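WARN no homologs supplied; continuing
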Amino acid sequence: MASLPHRAPMLLLWLPVTTLACCGLSAGDNQADAEQSRREPAGPIERISGDQGLKPVYYPKRDQKAAAVLDLGGATFLLNNSRNSDPSEGRDCRTGSLPINKQPLNLFAAPGLTVRGGLIRGQVPLGSDWKFTYCNSAAVNLRQSPRVTLNGIRVGNAWDGIRIGPGSDEFIVRNVWLSNIRDDAVENDYLVSGRIENSLFDGVMQAVALMPNKAVNIPASSGTVTINGSLILLRDYPFRGRQRFGTLAKSDARAPALRMERSIIAIDSPDGATWPEYWANGWDKVQFASNNLFLWLSDRPPPAALPLPRRGFKVVTGARARALWSDARRNWINCHPQVARLPGDLQSRPSQCRRASFGGPGR
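OK structure emitted
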């Protein structure tokens, strides 16, 4: 994140919250349930290790039953969606000679699977316009895999980070680090229920996509997507001729309800161009919010057209917002030494992990 010039005083807005502390948090009311949910299922463990290169991996293999745990702690996957390194008009991502691997990790028909670890190194161009770089791709894909837990995966420079496909309700994304995601950190176009827990989405365009194509006949959802103890930094990318940042929840009236607790939404966008209607739709879907921060990192005030959260958030801008984000991000990294690292990633300092602060796993 580039530092931004100091052009205006910090704005501090207070919205109704429950037991909010700016730099530390008490344990949630359901801590015992959360600890229970973190336990891995009993059963066989299967391991994939080594460099998988630019080839898609499917698990389980055809006619094979999935294990209880898939350990990817020693595995590296490569992702590329573009046949050239700088897509442009007249030479988009379909043109060129670079090898591609749009979907490196695919979990199909793996109900109840827990995936542990894994490193996915993307090569999706970050500086080209979205329109010319849109060769649809996702680092992790789920299909017909309900109750899957993705625990401790590291993904960088991808199009979509995690794609939740049909029949994959009650998903859990936990201790996951996604960075430089050109489109959706979590795409949930089938509107299923799930949880995002104690994860770092670091420089994504959209946090959660909850809006299928209008031509797709998917009924309105009665479920809930919960975001708990997570850090989300939205940044802008070139989109149809100008820089734009996305939203917490790209959604329409069919989307599931949202719950958000002990989490941060930060926005790094000097120009402030976004989709106000998607923000409004997303806030409409928030059923419950408590102990959250909304950080506007620029010294310019948030644009008047940007709908701000209505409840359950403290809104901070400017230098104080940047300090809060930097501190929480560093704390998350310190508290997650088990997550694999990409070149240039900060290393953990576990002795400095503050469990009860933003970025920490809770008491």
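The two ends are 29 Å apart (CA to CA).
OK
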